[in-house]
Amino acid sequence: MKKIALFPGTFDPFTIGHQSLVTRGLTLVDEIVIAIGINERKKTYFPLEERLLAIRRLYEDNPCIKVESYDSLTVDFADKIGARYILRGIRTINDFEYEKNIAAVNRKLTGIDTFILFTEPEHTHISSSIVRELLSYGKDISLFVPKGTKLY
Question: How far is Cα 3 from Cα 9, in angstroms, rounded to an integer?
Answer without folding.
Answer: 19
